[in-house]
Amino acid sequence: MKPQPQLLIVDDDAEITSLLADYLARFNFKAHTAGDGVQMWAELARHPIDLVVLDVMLPGVDGLQLSREIRQRSTIPVILLTARRGIYDRIMGLENGADDYVSKPFEPRELVARIHTVLRRAKPTLDSAAALLYSDVVHFDGWVLHRSERSLTSPSGLTVALSNAEFRLLSTFLQTPRRLFSRDQLVEQARGRTMDVFERSIDLLVSRLRQKLAQDPQAPSMIKTVRGAGYMFNAQSVQGRSAWHN
After folding, report:
1. What stretch of H or E contains 89?
2. pTM score above 0.85
3. Per-residue CA distances from 144 to 15, 32, 149, 152, 241 (Å)
4. Which residue ranges does the record assign to the Response regulatory domain (predicted)?
5. Are 20 and 14 in contact (CB under 8 A)?
6. pLDDT per residue as tens digits for the range 98-112
């Protein structure tokens, strides 16, 4: 059975989001809803969202700014909805990180077609993320993680010791880099039978892993804290391969 893509609809009109969510369910989409930027970040932290349908005109932070912030933090595709039809508005939306742009009013079936198209374009990225899960060796920003040996090598060639929980946490981050994880999601991934009482604090666990990855004091931290939402692994390059091709 094909997995059900999870969408997030962000619009301050609750009636529109409800009707649209029901309509999208007919096409095997699981749709979550949010009324503003604050709720959007909460939903992104709560669910593994595959695509965001984002209205431009929102209370507080508008959709253009939110689209830009999403692109800075992750590779989640974004489709903007707007009542503005000018070419300048379309260009502004695309320049702010959107993958597509749909003018209101729109036919719901057209939006479904746009969603399918954008998800197909994003599929290589999704396939790459899935491939990382099964890679024996993962390279990221000069570091090398050998999964079978559970060893981590720094850019300078030093071996860095990892606890079981730190290894699981790093593996989770590497599977989907630049994705926002809530604390609850990370706790589920890092949990194990051998975890001791101190490792039950995800903040402490993240802090320990961050310190081990902090080779250059002048370089930005690879693990970014997103206030009120969780953490994101901000590695610029992540590549995996089978250990047989070392």
Report:
1. helix 87-95
2. no
3. 49, 37, 11, 6, 11
4. 6-119
5. no
6. 888 888 888 889 899
Q: Which of 131, 150, 169 is the last residue of a domain?
A: 131
Q: Which two tokens stand for residue 192?
A: 């194990």
Say if 1 falls within a structural domain.
no
Q: Are residues 26 and 122 both part of a single domain?
A: yes
Q: What is the pLDDT of residues 16-42, one digit of tens each?
A: 899 999 999 999 999 999 999 999 998
Q: What is the distance between the alpha carbons of residues 4 and 72, in angstroms, rounded to a whole number?
A: 26
For 159-181, letters b (16+ CB in 10 Å) and e give: eeebbebbbbbbbbbbbbbbbbb
Q: Which DSSP string do the residues of 7-44 spell out, in sequence order? A: EEEE-S-HHHHHHHHHHHHTTT-EEEEESSHHHHHHHH
Domain limits for position 151: 134-245
Q: How many residues does the chain have?
A: 246
Question: Can you name the residues that pair with 30 across neighbouring β-strands?
Answer: 6
Strand order in the sheet with 230-233: 180-181, 230-233, 223-226
- Measured in whole angstroms, how far is the alpha carbon of residue 153 from the centre of its chain? 25
